[in-house]
Amino acid sequence: MASLSDLSEELGEIEGQISDIFRALSNGFQKLEKIKDSNRQSRQLEELTGKMRECKRLIKEFDREVKDLEYKSDAGTTKMLNEKKQSMIKELNSYVALKKQYASNIENKRIDLFEGPGEGFAEENGLLASNMSNQQLMDQGNRMMDETDQVIERSKKVVHETVNVGTETAAALKAQTEQMSRIVNELDSIHFSLKKATQMVKELGRQVATDRCIMALLFLIVAGVVAIIVVKLVNPHNKDIRDIPGLAPPAPSRRLLGYPN
């Protein structure tokens, strides 16, 4: 009989994937039998359930490929493919039934864990109470009340300590906030002082420039006056040079009577 890969490459690949999943399911359920913890069993069962969903999807793909090949396959091949599909479905259903069985067992264990011990404990307490005298019951009640009071006191102490820690934390945060506010104010003052100093430097620069211009102008005036004085002294008869106000003109040379020039 020809293999599925000879009939269709897709069918051969799907069959291989389904076979791998069936092996993984078989190994998974064998491993599940050895697990005692219900939580681990639940996780293992969820993993196996995911594999079964994947196997169901692959079987549907297998069925579609079989239907596509019906028109070009003979009756014997078609029958073989349908039997193969039914075999896969039957094996998958066996694992689904096994999964339901384990899920039911795990649920029953959880019910025993949550209900069994509580009921036994209540029954045991009832038996103990029926065997105790009135005085013993009162002593037991007082002891339980004392224990409850101690628990309450410890709780109040914890709450008080928590409140103190919260108060100290709030005070520390407030101090830090005030310190940050002072730092910000100091930074603002420094910024203002730097701004004023920059303005003063600019004003001083302008004043120095003005003073330099005035000194240069005075120097030019003085130099001009000195130059005029020098020229006037050197050439006193030069009519092109006007007399300097406040400066007396040079005295004319005097002639002696009776003497020719």
From TrEMBL:
Keywords: Coiled coil, Membrane, Protein transport, Transmembrane, Transmembrane helix, Transport. Residues 142-204 form the T-SNARE coiled-coil homology domain. It is a single-pass type IV membrane protein. The keyword Transport applies. It comes from the Eukaryota. It is found in: Membrane. The keyword Phosphoprotein does not apply. Residues 45-72 form a coiled coil. The chain crosses the membrane at residues 214-234. This is Plant SNARE 11. It comes from Datura stramonium. The lineage of its organism: Eukaryota, Viridiplantae, Streptophyta, Embryophyta, Tracheophyta.
